[in-house]
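Researcher: Here's a chain I'd like modeled. Treat it as a single chain, no partners, no ligands.
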Amino acid sequence: MSTDHVNPFPLEEEYQKKTGISPQDIGKLRTWLATQPHLPGNHITDLDLVLTYHCCNRSLGVSKQVLDLHYTLRTLFTNYFKDRTVEDIEQVLRTLLLTPLPMRCDDGSAILFTHFMDSDPTNFNIGETIKTVLMIMDLWQYEEGTWPGFVMVVDFNGMTLAHVARLDLQNIQQFLYYLQVRSDRSTE
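Model: Modeled as a single isolated chain. Structure tokens:
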């Protein structure tokens, strides 16, 4: 993942992957999207549609449901998706290492590695951490296109009961629910 600017993964290369996705498939989703005034169709790229369609096992019906739910959750979970800036994540990145790894699992799945760099629990904010993880995942997938799957490796070294005490149920519920929807979109 580049650190100075983000380039979307080229659609031409995406269509050459062995995913079985064609421009005609994406055209069908784009046509449906035009009939959905509650969705931000002018902000949803063809790459977004490819990612969704791929991860819904090339099912048009499931892709429509997942797109609708995905953008609904992004609207509801404003603490993660509203006013996202680099400044928002600076403190988190001083506390945690959150890095996409260049290597892949045997099946080609992408790997995100996390590790405490500052184990002081007073510097740990689960809401901001979730926001940062989601920003990194969005950018990473935008740059790399489809993956066979996604694995998050969490190194709990340095984590204490004081960290656990800072976890709140609402953030955990929202994150897990959003990840479930995203995994429907981001993995086979």
